[in-house]
Each structure stands twice: as structure tokens, then as C-alpha cells.
Write a structure and sequence with these properties.
Blueprint lengths: L5 H7 L2 E6 L11 E7 L5 H9 L16 E7 L2 E5 L10 H17 L3 E9 L6 H13 L3 E6 L6 H19 L3 E5 L8 H11 L15
Pfam families: MMR_HSR1
Protein name: Probable GTP-binding protein EngB
Keywords: Cell cycle, Cell division, GTP-binding, Magnesium, Metal-binding, Nucleotide-binding, Septation
Amino acid sequence: MQAKNPAIGLCQQATFLISAAKVDQCPDDQGYEVAFAGRSNAGKSSALNTLTHASLARTSKTPGRTQLLNFFRLDEERRLVDLPGYGYAKVPIPLKLHWQKHLEAYLGSRESLRGLMLMMDIRHPLTEFDRMMLDWSGASGMPMHILLTKADKLAFGAAKTTLLKVQQEIRKGWGEHVSIQLFSAPKRIGVEDAQAVLGHWLGLMGGEAEVEQVEE
């Protein structure tokens, strides 16, 4: 019988810690940190809320509302980070440049960052922003796990075909350190797989998570 993932209970205790507009406003850089990134309207807030069983991240029908680095405390040495959304056309250019500057500063300097969860809308994967994040992950050696969100919007066969296609392109362009899965917040597709990745990155489980599930 598979042991229960300790990250599940820990994530259920998640509470808001602080919002930071700049890197020097972030919490002390120690312990374990997992960041959530995604193009605006890719389902990042819904995924974060589903994985924590809480309404931590504000969801909105207006993409691009997340303008700060939002930190959520799990325990004394573990945190989740909701990164600013990207790519929404109505966001002013100066604000986009601000986000990019401070997001790059956070990603490039944070010693406690152990992994990056990247949300991609399964209907629009591998956008320019997604590829930029993959490039950064590859250059820095930072583990990345992709959630192909809104998987319930496609029939299972079509969703699996998209998963395999994106998986092949990622392996060809960015190597083996990136893992990927199907995910749906309302249907709870792939929630346990994603929580397993969190458990490993947060130092709660040994070995490596088996996350590239394509069979039903």
C-alpha cells in the first residue's frame, strides 16, 4: 500500500505570508520554496487553490490581476510562491516590464527555490512565455513540472494526444529534467500526481516522483 504523501496535509495548512513587489521584500531565503508560474489565464490560481484545498490565490475572469510575488507559508521552512501572470494584452507595457524584471531577479537569485510548476492551458500550450520559462529552467538546471491545465475541456483521447505531443517537443528541446502531466482543477484530474511532485521538492519524500502519466 502506497504511503500517504505528507505534502497533502501540509498544503492544507497553507496560509498567506507576504506579498512582495521586489526581491528584497521576499521572506528570508532559506528552507524550501516551490514557485507557480503561468501565462495569464492558464489556470494558475485555480491549480494552486486545488492543490492546497484552500482559496489562497485569487481567481478572476480578468487575467493578469496577480501583480506581486505572493508567498504562502506551509511550515517554518516551506513555502509556495504565486508568481505574477504574464502576457495579458491589456496590462500596460511598463507594468509588464516591471513584472519581467522582478520575476527574473527572483528566479535568478533565490537559493531556497527547489522547483517550478508551470501551468499551460492544454488548448494553447508552449506559448512564447512558456518557452521562455523552459529556456530559463534549462539554463539554470532548475527542475520544472508542467501542468497541462483545463484538461477537462478536451476529450480524454485528445488530451492524451496533446500531452504526448508537448512531451515529445519538450524532450527534444529542453531535455529530461522537465516533467509533464494532465491537470484539471474542477475535475481534480492529476491532483495526486502534482502533489507528489510537491512532496519531493519540499523535502518530504525520497526518490523521484513518477509524474509522466499518460495511461488512464
